[in-house]
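Collaborator request, handled under Task 6.
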Amino acid sequence: MREFCGLSSEEIKKNCLDLGEKPFRSKQLTDWVYQKGILDPSKMGNLSKVFKEKLEKDIVFSSLNLCEINHSDDEETLKFLWRIPSGNLVESVLISSGSRRTVCISSQVGCPVRCAFCASGKKGLIQNLSAGQIVEQVVRINQFLYEKGERVSHLVFMGMGEPLENYEAVIKAIKILIDKNLYGISPRRITLSTAGVVPAIGKLLNEKLNINLALSLHAPNQQIRKRIIPYARKYQLNEVLSSVRTYAKDSKRDITYEYILIEGLND
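Structure tokens returned to the collaborator:
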């Protein structure tokens, strides 16, 4: 069965036609999911009973099981813990600042990068998330905000995982999220953080998505960087910096450099 949140607008239209429904049904479905945050066909009031039954047999609308929500002391940051069908756990974070509602998205369970300061990579990469599981994090948190009359306004791929090591799923998820017929968020409000997967940065540039790019730098030279980020052995720092500068120049998007200070090591 296909995950609804992993379908493009064209795939949703085709799916409706394949189920013997009129094309306008796809607009009804996308409104329920992406505008109202409803992922249960039984609650989609303007759909026929027969169509709902077809959908329940053909499509998975939700594959994330919410386990818990943890609040920061100031209530401005909420961490959502989800269980996916494999039984593994993954996190998303909602950050409220003024009128902004930013969701920090995970793209993998675990992480292959194994940064010294990060708990996500302690056991290495466990599993890639599907495009549907990535998008559903946004939809479910948007559903949470909908009841307050609010909406997710910004997205950062800075949760669990190295997004560019799950390239196909992440790119499809971004295309779904920026599609005006689906969620419709501006690419300028999406930031992807990477440890510096040089070939994938070039591919990302060729996608012409023009999202923002953030580089996990964390060191002034290659020698120290390898101690903090074992993954950095794959690509020399000068190669990484050259690739992100090319991305900035050609996409006309500024690069954010992320740097965590570790006493006695990179400070």
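The cover message to the collaborator said: "The first strand starts at residue 2 and ends at 3. Residues 131-146 form the longest helix (16 residues). Please let us know whether this matches your experimental observations."
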